[in-house]
Specification:
two-stranded antiparallel ribbon, 2 helices, about 5% strand
């Protein structure tokens, strides 16, 4: 399914949902003999609440890289701009923890030291709210450098898709 078909399908599902809710509210309003104004205001309030909840949970990223301020997903292991390790996965108990910690919170396993923080990479420090770079410098999955790769669609090392 192409992205255009997916967007069209998503739009039709959402619009169908809103039509269904509107008809449902009008039917309930007529059955309960609620005033005409309440039949209009109540569905609008529900639609605004649903829209706010959708934006809240699918809106832009609220997490930023602590080193370069690029917006990142909460599931990204490495920053796509500066290569900072953001998440550690414990090989002992398979629990994810903060990348700043050198040990596992769950079982106490000590992580090996990550050498990527000490290497002198060139990266731009962004202001919060500034547009993120279009081409990533590092793979968000494995942290490998993508500096010399012009038109890569997939990482050469781990095979993950470069977004």
């Amino acid at each position: 399914m192409s992205i255009r078909d997916y967007n069209r399908k998503s739009f039709s599902v959402i619009s169908g949902f809103f039509v269904f809710l509107t008809l449902l509210f009008f039917t309930i309003g007529l059955l309960l003999e609620i005033g005409f104004i309440m039949m209009i205001i109540f569905p609008l309030l529900v639609f605004v609440l649903i829209g706010f909840l959708i934006y809240r949970y699918t809106g832009e990223s609220k997490k930023y890289c602590p080193r370069c301020n690029v917006p990142i997903s909460i599931y990204t292991e490495y920053c796509r701009n500066c290569g900072l390790k953001l998440i550690n996965k414990c090989p002992n108990c398979n629990i994810y923890s903060n990348g700043k910690l050198n040990y596992c919170d769950n079982c106490g396993y000590e992580f090996p030291e990550y050498e990527g923080d000490k290497l002198p990479f060139e990266y731009k420090v962004y202001e919060i709210g500034e547009q993120a770079p279009e081409k990533p410098n590092f793979c968000p999955t494995c942290g490998s450098s993508l500096k010399n790769a012009e038109n890569l669609r997939f990482c050469e090392f781990c095979g993950s898709k470069i977004v």
